[in-house]
Specification:
The chain contains 8 helices and 11 strands. The protein has 239 residues and is of the alpha/beta class.
Length: 239
């Protein structure tokens, strides 16, 4: 069964963050998912950008060098009641996190985080705000993946996947034929601050192949020297 692909309107995202590692991590990941991204490295620049154009979503770090993140959140919500706001917080910032939600933020993500966790929260808040997003159910090669319920079936039979295996399969199924390096998969699934070995990717993909019945590696291909790709519409294995 071929993968069903739909084109959704691009969402405009403003990132207000001062850590360059996180900025690049978010910029690359969101652009890859089709979002239009603007970056502000401090609070005042973020407010100027926000007032200059219309955004669907703001990703706001609460700890900025020039302006309190809670004050920025208050101003954003006051200027546009419809914009979605997701806070980036540290574990120790529980009072600020609660205050941010009380000021109108839609959700928060605690550092460190994986891109797939953030992406799931982005989809959820945009959906609640009435912004059309990707379909919840994706099908390919007799596999049905339900992102809303985190259920996977093949030929109608349920498959029990770990959260990491589910995130890998969803990424592959939403981006058929694209080659993902191990480093990209680590950033996307494990997070930008993951300090382990890239072999963890190979282990999880091995288990995922076993669970979806892909022992011949016809679906999840090994592209030697590059990484992995999902090929639901081709018959001859590359590995």
């Amino acid at each position: 069964m071929p993968l069903e692909e739909k084109n959704f309107p691009s969402s405009y995202v403003l990132i207000i963050e001062d850590e360059q590692t996180i900025i690049e991590f978010l910029r690359v990941g969101l652009a890859y998912e089709g979002f239009q991204v603007e970056i502000a490295c401090d609070g005042w620049s973020g407010l100027r950008l926000f007032n200059a154009q219309k955004f669907d979503l703001v990703i706001l770090d609460l700890m900025l060098p020039d302006l309190n993140g809670l004050e920025i959140c208050r101003r954003l919500r006051s200027a546009n009641p419809d914009v979605a706001i997701i806070l980036l917080t540290a574990k120790r910032e529980i009072p600020d996190r609660i205050a941010g939600l009380n000021l109108g933020a839609d959700d928060y993500v605690t550092k460190p985080f994986s891109f797939e966790e953030l992406l799931a929260r982005i989809r959820a808040v945009l959906r609640r705000r009435g912004r059309p997003q990707e379909q919840a159910i994706v099908t390919a090669a007799d596999i049905m993946l339900n992102c809303a319920t985190h259920e996977v079936h093949k030929n109608g039979e349920p498959i029990d996947l770990t959260p990491k295996e589910f995130a890998l399969l969803e990424l592959f199924m939403r981006h058929p034929r694209r080659v993902f390096t191990r480093e990209t998969l680590l950033n996307r699934i494990w997070g930008f601050d993951f300090a382990g070995d890239t072999n963890v990717v190979d282990v999880h993909i091995h288990h995922l192949r076993e669970k979806i019945g892909d022992r011949a590696k016809r679906l999840i291909r090994t592209n030697y020297g590059l990484g992995y790709s999902f090929r639901p519409d081709e018959d001859d294995p590359l590995a």
